[in-house]
Amino acid sequence: MKTFYPKDLSTLEFYGLLQGAVAPRPIAFVSSVDSDGNVNLSPFSFFNLFSSQPPVLIFSPLRRMRDNTTKHTLENVLEVPEVVIHIVHFGMVEQMSLASTEYEKGVNEFDKAGFTQIKSEQVRPPRIKEAQVAFECRVNEVKPLGENGGAGNLVICEVLVAHVNEEVFDESGKIDPRKLDAVARLGGDWYCRASGASLFQIPKPLRNLGIGIDQLPEDVRNSIILNGNNLGRLGNVAAFPTDAQIAEFGRSAEIQEMRIRFQNDPDSLIDHLHLLAKEALDEDDVDRAWLILLQRT
Amino acid sequence: MKTFYPKDLSTLEFYGLLQGAVAPRPIAFVSSVDSDGNVNLSPFSFFNLFSSQPPVLIFSPLRRMRDNTTKHTLENVLEVPEVVIHIVHFGMVEQMSLASTEYEKGVNEFDKAGFTQIKSEQVRPPRIKEAQVAFECRVNEVKPLGENGGAGNLVICEVLVAHVNEEVFDESGKIDPRKLDAVARLGGDWYCRASGASLFQIPKPLRNLGIGIDQLPEDVRNSIILNGNNLGRLGNVAAFPTDAQIAEFGRSAEIQEMRIRFQNDPDSLIDHLHLLAKEALDEDDVDRAWLILLQRT
């Protein structure tokens, strides 16, 4: 491991390290207005959801590192404490990137980036017609985290209304990430598209407490075949199968054949049981994996 | 669009909507200790980077919706205001999920989830040997966002030391997202792996101000062939090519042939120019795309 102390790097270097490491970051595409009603639209990836009741989203415009000036969005929310926060999907990501251009105050990035402005219900800033998700928010507080270039400013936003495109819901009424097709930000020029093979599911851990990796049999815990993800899944069971279940599974042809083949080589028997269990885990069949692993004796 | 007001949904329903929409979220895998030194390790996806100077990370443990109790991590940071925040990579995601099990106070999730504890330099909570990135942090403030079930608590952490595995850097010393292989959280049981084809790059917008989509020629802006991402890229140029460059490109064989083929059908000429420009944009060749598009007259 390489160790870095903030004081040993320039602000820009440490910023690069943080941005590369804390990833992927969701993107708030924020519309705001100044007291004259001039509209601004700008993306921020120092952003997330932080509370459900009250529903709170926070994003952070940084003071610029080159000259310690502030962004129009920050100036606007100090004048008019209201925003619309949109979630960015893949189909609009290049337009979003264009909107991050530092146009002069008064230039409306809706026009520059080719989005359609529609009136919000509860707040003055307009929302983006083309977005899949828009949250109309009241800004409850702006909390500066420092005074110099690179300092963040927490814009603490309470959601008043959420607008979501019907097309991103599944049949049960939940947002389907494959339909949302959201993008996120990483370091440098990198983005990530949450879609296709990049999406996967892990069942929530058991309410009735998984046994944990510390309770796995020693041969399983020290396996050269099973990896950390396999062990994590194996530790998330409430109990082992019963002796009767293990014995019954042991009478299957595949186990009987394996026992005969490796009758004089117990180490190879264990390795082959682990390989077979790994296949079961790759198919999300944890019960079968355990029945296989417990054939070792 | 479907419109949702927080008051019309149960806390749990609105939570589901927010979690599904604000995505993908980076994961803070947080180790903490209580005043007796008992270690806790737990993941939080209400988390991000918020400031570079000072370097600030924030995560938010919610008050439980079912009974308004708080999590061990929150109790610990109120006793000992120090944490280590690790970034989760794909190779450890199932172990991380297991660590999110609600084990009793005093159970060390390092053991349950099979991680190796190593001593931190500047803070009392230990760090995970198997993590690619670990930030030792002082907790500057804990800011509650509400008092009821579902309320977040901002744990505002200042980075004192960063530990990063050498293997995730590229040759220029920057973190390579393909090597980091970070995972993020979405709604329900969904995760996203930032790797392979899900990663893509967009050059930063021009410092000298892109012309913007509002300045594109009308046929380009209203094209039925070019999409929003194509227009976004076309708007991010400082100027059009010169008349001389356009004329020279017009003498190429492919343009000459196209002109002859569609000499009596100007609409088809435009569509075919747009198709050819789209190919150039798909290869990130914006200069060539512009030379093609400006052949229309």
How would you describe this protein?
- The structure is a homodimer of 297-residue chains.
- Chain A has 297 residues and is α+β, with helices and mostly antiparallel strands.
- Chain A folds into two domains: 193 residues, Pnp Oxidase, Chain A; 89 residues, no CATH class.
- In chain A, 30% of the residues lie in helices and 24% in strands.
- Chain A has eleven helices and 14 strands.
- In chain A, the strands form three sheets. In chain A, strands 4-3-7-10-11-6-5 form a seven-stranded antiparallel beta sheet. Chain A has a three-stranded antiparallel beta sheet with strand order 2-12-13, with no helix packed on it.
- In chain A, β8 and β9 form a beta hairpin.
- The longest helix of chain A has 17 residues.
- Chain A starts with a strand and ends with a helix.
- The interface between A and B is large, with 121 and 121 residues.
- β14 of chain A pairs antiparallel with β13 of chain B.
Q: Radius of gyration of chain A, Cα only, in angstroms?
A: 26 Å
Main-sheet strand order of chain A equals 4-3-7-10-11-6-5
CATH class of the largest domain in chain A: Mainly Beta
Shape of chain A: elongated
Mean pLDDT of chain A: 95
Give the H and E element order of chain A: EHEEEEEHEHHEEEEHEEEHHHHHH
Look at the structure and name the CATH superfamily of the largest domain in chain A: Electron Transport, Fmn-binding Protein, Chain A
CATH T-level fold name of the largest domain in chain A: Pnp Oxidase, Chain A
The percentage helix of chain A is 25-40%
Specify the biggest β-sheet of chain A: 7 strands, antiparallel
The share of residues in extended strands of chain A comes to: 15-25%
CATH architecture name of the largest domain in chain A: Roll
Oligomer: homodimer
- Span from first to last CA of chain A? 40 Å
Largest interface comes to: A-B, 121 and 121 residues
- Counting DSSP H or I runs of 4 or more residues, the number of helices of chain A is 11
Low-confidence stretches of chain A: none
Number of domains of chain A: 2
Number of strands of chain A: 14
